[in-house]
Design a protein that fits this description.
The chain is of the alpha+beta class. It has 4 helices and 9 strands. It binds flavin mononucleotide.
């Protein structure tokens, strides 16, 4: 192992006090769980809890960058950018995309995969005009997209995966299959429930 690897391994990971897991209280709609977790982060004062990694495809190759979540409604999770940006061009060629939110203080992660649709001009221009840097100049290239999770997928989570690295002692139950979750894969070990170790589990 390199010296860098040693130092990386020694870095502190999660805080001791993290929210536990209760699969029984997971809402039916995965978007509801996402909003509840996002609200927790906003309430905690964490910086940019609405920032996430946004992945697009470039001829089959994944490309990721950080974007800000602008809204969430029945159309999906909104992001905005220039239509002429690389991601805008990639989305025009292939609308498949994915978001990964990671909230380090709570050890929570949410992944959403699906397809984006370009929202209407009025929505895009309203977003442009609400930006803090808006100086009154129009930007006809500005576009709001909504990522819709895969409604047709066979996965019970419909394109959503929520996971947490809550401490085993804080977990009230091991995450397994819930109405909002995919079944745990048989080739994966079950989440650890020891009193001393922390393991990541998936809802
Ligand atoms: C915290 C953070 C938030 C960002 N939010 C956005 C955003 O909402 N929209 C956007 O177009 N770029 C945003 N960016 C810049 C993108 O990460 C990216 O560099 C830029 O959009 C160009 O990406 P592309 O070349 O893949 O199109 C953000 C960057 C950071 C670090």
């Amino acid at each position: 192992m390199s010296e860098l690897a040693d130092r990386l391994r020694a870095l502190p990971s999660f805080p001791e006090d993290m929210p536990g897991l209760d699969p029984d209280s997971v809402p039916e709609d995965p978007a509801e769980l996402f909003v509840a977790w996002l609200e927790d982060e906003i309430a905690s004062g964490a910086r940019q809890p609405h920032a996430m990694t946004f992945q697009t495809l470039d001829g089959g190759a994944p490309v990721g960058r950080t974007l800000i979540l602008k809204d969430l409604d029945e159309r999906g999770l909104h992001v905005s950018t220039h239509r002429g940006s690389r991601k805008g061009e990639r989305l025009a060629a292939d609308p498949r995309a994915a978001m990964t939110f990671f909230w380090r203080e709570s050890g929570r992660q949410v992944q959403v995969g699906g397809e984006v649709v370009a929202l209407d001009e009025a929505t895009s221009q309203a977003d442009w005009a609400s930006r803090p840097s808006y100086d009154g100049s129009p930007n006809p290239d500005w576009q709001v997209y909504a990522l819709r999770s895969r409604p047709g997928t066979s996965s019970p989570s419909r394109g959503w995966i929520a996971s947490t690295c809550a401490s085993a002692t804080g977990a009230s139950a091991a995450p397994g299959r819930t109405s909002a979750s995919p079944p745990r894969r048989a080739d994966r070990p079950p989440p650890h429930r020891s009193r001393t170790k922390r393991r990541c589990g998936r809802l």
